[in-house]
Amino acid sequence: MSRRSFIAGNWKMHGSAEHVEDFSRVLVDAAPSLNCDLAICVPFVYVERLARLLEGSEIAPGAQNLSHSVEHGAHTGEISGSMLADCGADYVIVGHSERREMHGETDEVVVAKAEAAVAAGLRPIVCIGESLDQREADKTEAVLKRQISALTSGCDRQTLERMVLAYEPIWAIGTGRSATPEQAQAVHEFVRTQFADWDATIADSLPILYGGSVKPDNASALFAGADVDGALVGGASLKSDSFVGIARAMG
Ligand code: PGA
Description:
By secondary structure, the chain is an alpha/beta fold. It is built from twelve helices and eight strands.
Protein backbone atom coordinates (compact mmCIF):
# COMPACT_ATOMS: atom_id res chain seq x y z
CA MET A 1 0.00 0.00 0.00
CA SER A 2 1.44 3.38 -0.84
CA ARG A 3 0.81 5.99 1.79
CA ARG A 4 0.69 9.68 0.81
CA SER A 5 3.40 11.75 2.48
CA PHE A 6 2.01 14.24 4.95
CA ILE A 7 3.54 17.26 6.66
CA ALA A 8 1.56 18.95 9.43
CA GLY A 9 2.55 22.12 11.27
CA ASN A 10 1.83 22.65 14.95
CA TRP A 11 2.02 26.33 15.80
CA LYS A 12 1.40 25.69 19.53
CA MET A 13 0.59 28.98 21.32
CA HIS A 14 2.24 31.16 18.69
CA GLY A 15 0.99 33.37 15.91
CA SER A 16 -1.16 36.38 15.22
CA ALA A 17 -3.74 37.34 12.62
CA GLU A 18 -0.99 38.94 10.55
CA HIS A 19 1.22 35.85 10.82
CA VAL A 20 -1.64 33.64 9.61
CA GLU A 21 -2.19 35.93 6.61
CA ASP A 22 1.50 36.13 5.62
CA PHE A 23 2.15 32.43 6.14
CA SER A 24 -0.93 31.32 4.20
CA ARG A 25 -0.07 33.52 1.22
CA VAL A 26 3.40 31.95 0.87
CA LEU A 27 2.18 28.42 1.45
CA VAL A 28 -0.70 28.64 -1.03
CA ASP A 29 1.79 29.81 -3.69
CA ALA A 30 4.25 27.01 -2.88
CA ALA A 31 1.76 24.15 -2.45
CA PRO A 32 1.30 23.17 -6.14
CA SER A 33 5.03 22.41 -6.37
CA LEU A 34 5.07 20.25 -3.23
CA ASN A 35 4.73 16.51 -3.43
CA CYS A 36 2.89 15.83 -0.15
CA ASP A 37 -0.30 16.58 1.74
CA LEU A 38 -0.08 19.59 4.05
CA ALA A 39 -1.93 20.76 7.15
CA ILE A 40 -1.41 23.66 9.56
CA CYS A 41 -2.74 23.39 13.11
CA VAL A 42 -3.15 26.83 14.64
CA PRO A 43 -4.63 28.18 17.90
CA PHE A 44 -8.45 27.93 17.97
CA VAL A 45 -9.06 31.61 17.39
CA TYR A 46 -7.24 31.60 14.05
CA VAL A 47 -8.77 28.45 12.58
CA GLU A 48 -11.59 30.22 10.75
CA ARG A 49 -9.29 32.89 9.31
CA LEU A 50 -6.80 30.23 8.22
CA ALA A 51 -9.54 28.14 6.60
CA ARG A 52 -10.74 31.16 4.64
CA LEU A 53 -7.22 31.94 3.43
CA LEU A 54 -6.57 28.31 2.40
CA GLU A 55 -9.88 27.93 0.57
CA GLY A 56 -9.39 26.53 -2.92
CA SER A 57 -5.92 25.21 -2.04
CA GLU A 58 -4.99 21.64 -1.16
CA ILE A 59 -3.70 22.69 2.27
CA ALA A 60 -5.81 21.58 5.20
CA PRO A 61 -6.55 23.80 8.21
CA GLY A 62 -6.40 22.26 11.66
CA ALA A 63 -6.59 22.89 15.42
CA GLN A 64 -4.48 21.62 18.32
CA ASN A 65 -7.07 20.38 20.79
CA LEU A 66 -10.79 19.77 21.24
CA SER A 67 -13.21 18.83 23.95
CA HIS A 68 -13.66 15.14 24.72
CA SER A 69 -17.39 15.83 24.84
CA VAL A 70 -19.49 15.39 21.72
CA GLU A 71 -22.57 16.80 23.46
CA HIS A 72 -22.66 20.57 23.76
CA GLY A 73 -23.29 21.78 27.29
CA ALA A 74 -21.82 23.20 30.46
CA HIS A 75 -18.10 22.96 29.62
CA THR A 76 -16.86 26.51 30.14
CA GLY A 77 -13.90 27.35 27.93
CA GLU A 78 -14.07 24.16 25.89
CA ILE A 79 -14.39 23.90 22.09
CA SER A 80 -16.14 20.96 20.47
CA GLY A 81 -15.12 19.08 17.35
CA SER A 82 -18.25 20.23 15.53
CA MET A 83 -17.37 23.86 16.32
CA LEU A 84 -13.95 23.31 14.79
CA ALA A 85 -15.54 21.70 11.74
CA ASP A 86 -17.86 24.74 11.53
CA CYS A 87 -14.76 26.94 11.38
CA GLY A 88 -13.40 24.90 8.49
CA ALA A 89 -10.92 22.62 10.31
CA ASP A 90 -10.11 19.26 8.74
CA TYR A 91 -7.56 18.05 11.32
CA VAL A 92 -7.05 18.30 15.05
CA ILE A 93 -4.01 17.30 17.10
CA VAL A 94 -4.92 15.01 19.99
CA GLY A 95 -2.82 13.97 22.97
CA HIS A 96 0.26 16.08 22.28
CA SER A 97 2.79 15.41 25.05
CA GLU A 98 2.43 19.03 26.21
CA ARG A 99 -1.25 18.37 26.81
CA ARG A 100 -0.58 15.00 28.40
CA GLU A 101 2.04 16.54 30.71
CA MET A 102 0.67 20.02 31.44
CA HIS A 103 -3.05 19.36 31.23
CA GLY A 104 -3.26 15.87 32.66
CA GLU A 105 -4.56 14.16 29.53
CA THR A 106 -4.56 10.43 30.13
CA ASP A 107 -4.73 7.66 27.52
CA GLU A 108 -8.50 7.50 28.21
CA VAL A 109 -8.93 11.23 27.52
CA VAL A 110 -6.89 10.87 24.33
CA VAL A 111 -9.18 8.05 23.16
CA ALA A 112 -12.29 10.11 23.96
CA LYS A 113 -10.90 13.11 22.07
CA ALA A 114 -9.95 11.02 19.03
CA GLU A 115 -13.49 9.62 19.00
CA ALA A 116 -15.00 13.10 19.37
CA ALA A 117 -12.86 14.37 16.49
CA VAL A 118 -14.01 11.65 14.12
CA ALA A 119 -17.63 12.05 15.22
CA ALA A 120 -17.33 15.68 14.06
CA GLY A 121 -15.84 14.70 10.69
CA LEU A 122 -12.27 15.70 11.63
CA ARG A 123 -9.11 13.61 11.26
CA PRO A 124 -7.26 13.32 14.57
CA ILE A 125 -3.45 13.52 14.57
CA VAL A 126 -2.81 11.45 17.69
CA CYS A 127 0.56 11.90 19.39
CA ILE A 128 2.47 9.21 21.24
CA GLY A 129 6.03 9.10 22.54
CA GLU A 130 8.35 8.42 25.44
CA SER A 131 10.21 10.76 27.81
CA LEU A 132 13.99 10.83 28.12
CA ASP A 133 13.83 8.93 31.42
CA GLN A 134 11.72 6.24 29.83
CA ARG A 135 14.08 5.93 26.85
CA GLU A 136 17.12 5.75 29.10
CA ALA A 137 15.43 3.11 31.23
CA ASP A 138 14.82 1.09 28.05
CA LYS A 139 11.06 1.52 28.38
CA THR A 140 10.33 3.13 24.99
CA GLU A 141 8.58 0.08 23.56
CA ALA A 142 6.59 -0.57 26.73
CA VAL A 143 5.35 3.03 26.84
CA LEU A 144 4.36 3.01 23.18
CA LYS A 145 2.71 -0.37 23.55
CA ARG A 146 0.53 1.00 26.35
CA GLN A 147 -0.38 4.14 24.39
CA ILE A 148 -1.18 2.12 21.25
CA SER A 149 -3.18 -0.52 23.05
CA ALA A 150 -5.31 2.22 24.63
CA LEU A 151 -6.11 3.38 21.08
CA THR A 152 -6.78 -0.05 19.56
CA SER A 153 -8.90 -1.20 22.47
CA GLY A 154 -10.70 2.11 23.10
CA CYS A 155 -11.36 3.54 19.64
CA ASP A 156 -13.94 2.50 17.08
CA ARG A 157 -12.63 1.01 13.87
CA GLN A 158 -13.78 4.11 11.97
CA THR A 159 -11.69 6.31 14.27
CA LEU A 160 -8.60 4.20 13.64
CA GLU A 161 -9.23 4.33 9.89
CA ARG A 162 -9.33 8.15 10.00
CA MET A 163 -6.40 8.53 12.39
CA VAL A 164 -2.97 9.95 11.66
CA LEU A 165 -0.38 8.92 14.24
CA ALA A 166 2.56 11.09 15.27
CA TYR A 167 5.51 9.52 17.05
CA GLU A 168 7.06 12.34 19.04
CA PRO A 169 9.83 11.40 21.48
CA ILE A 170 9.39 14.00 24.21
CA TRP A 171 13.15 14.51 24.52
CA ALA A 172 13.28 15.64 20.89
CA ILE A 173 10.47 18.19 21.06
CA GLY A 174 11.71 21.77 20.89
CA THR A 175 15.19 20.70 22.01
CA GLY A 176 17.02 20.80 18.69
CA ARG A 177 17.94 17.17 19.37
CA SER A 178 16.03 15.13 16.83
CA ALA A 179 15.89 11.35 16.91
CA THR A 180 18.35 9.90 14.43
CA PRO A 181 16.83 8.53 11.21
CA GLU A 182 17.65 5.01 12.49
CA GLN A 183 15.96 5.62 15.85
CA ALA A 184 12.89 7.08 14.14
CA GLN A 185 12.56 4.24 11.62
CA ALA A 186 13.04 1.58 14.32
CA VAL A 187 10.23 3.03 16.43
CA HIS A 188 7.93 3.63 13.46
CA GLU A 189 8.37 0.02 12.41
CA PHE A 190 7.61 -1.10 15.96
CA VAL A 191 4.50 1.10 16.06
CA ARG A 192 3.22 -0.25 12.75
CA THR A 193 3.80 -3.81 13.92
CA GLN A 194 1.78 -3.13 17.06
CA PHE A 195 -1.13 -1.93 14.95
CA ALA A 196 -0.66 -4.87 12.56
CA ASP A 197 -1.09 -7.32 15.45
CA TRP A 198 -4.51 -5.78 15.84
CA ASP A 199 -5.45 -5.14 12.17
CA ALA A 200 -3.01 -5.51 9.27
CA THR A 201 -5.06 -3.44 6.82
CA ILE A 202 -5.30 -0.45 9.12
CA ALA A 203 -1.61 -0.75 10.05
CA ASP A 204 -0.64 -0.72 6.40
CA SER A 205 -2.57 2.44 5.58
CA LEU A 206 -1.88 4.28 8.86
CA PRO A 207 0.16 7.46 8.27
CA ILE A 208 2.87 7.62 10.95
CA LEU A 209 4.52 11.02 11.24
CA TYR A 210 7.73 11.73 13.11
CA GLY A 211 7.84 14.82 15.33
CA GLY A 212 10.64 16.40 17.34
CA SER A 213 13.08 19.04 16.06
CA VAL A 214 12.40 18.38 12.37
CA LYS A 215 14.15 21.03 10.27
CA PRO A 216 14.81 21.46 6.55
CA ASP A 217 18.34 20.10 6.99
CA ASN A 218 17.44 16.84 8.79
CA ALA A 219 14.09 16.16 7.10
CA SER A 220 15.16 14.15 4.07
CA ALA A 221 17.30 11.75 6.16
CA LEU A 222 14.35 11.20 8.53
CA PHE A 223 11.91 10.70 5.65
CA ALA A 224 14.13 7.99 4.15
CA GLY A 225 12.73 5.54 6.73
CA ALA A 226 10.24 3.19 5.06
CA ASP A 227 7.73 3.67 7.89
CA VAL A 228 8.22 7.42 8.27
CA ASP A 229 5.34 8.93 6.32
CA GLY A 230 5.98 12.58 7.10
CA ALA A 231 6.36 14.95 10.00
CA LEU A 232 4.56 16.89 12.68
CA VAL A 233 6.58 20.10 12.84
CA GLY A 234 6.55 22.55 15.73
CA GLY A 235 9.11 25.38 15.78
CA ALA A 236 10.06 25.08 12.11
CA SER A 237 6.40 25.35 11.04
CA LEU A 238 6.23 28.98 12.17
CA LYS A 239 8.36 30.22 9.30
CA SER A 240 6.94 29.58 5.86
CA ASP A 241 10.37 29.08 4.29
CA SER A 242 11.43 26.38 6.76
CA PHE A 243 8.03 24.65 6.60
CA VAL A 244 8.19 24.65 2.79
CA GLY A 245 11.81 23.45 3.00
CA ILE A 246 10.70 20.45 5.07
CA ALA A 247 7.88 19.69 2.63
CA ARG A 248 10.35 19.87 -0.29
CA ALA A 249 12.51 17.26 1.47
CA MET A 250 9.67 14.82 0.81
CA GLY A 251 10.95 14.80 -2.80
P1 PGA B 1 9.34 20.81 17.45
O1 PGA B 1 7.89 20.39 18.01
O2 PGA B 1 9.33 20.57 15.96
O3 PGA B 1 9.47 22.26 17.78
O4 PGA B 1 10.33 19.95 18.14
C1 PGA B 1 7.21 19.27 17.51
C2 PGA B 1 5.87 19.16 18.18
O5 PGA B 1 5.78 19.43 19.39
O6 PGA B 1 4.86 18.79 17.55
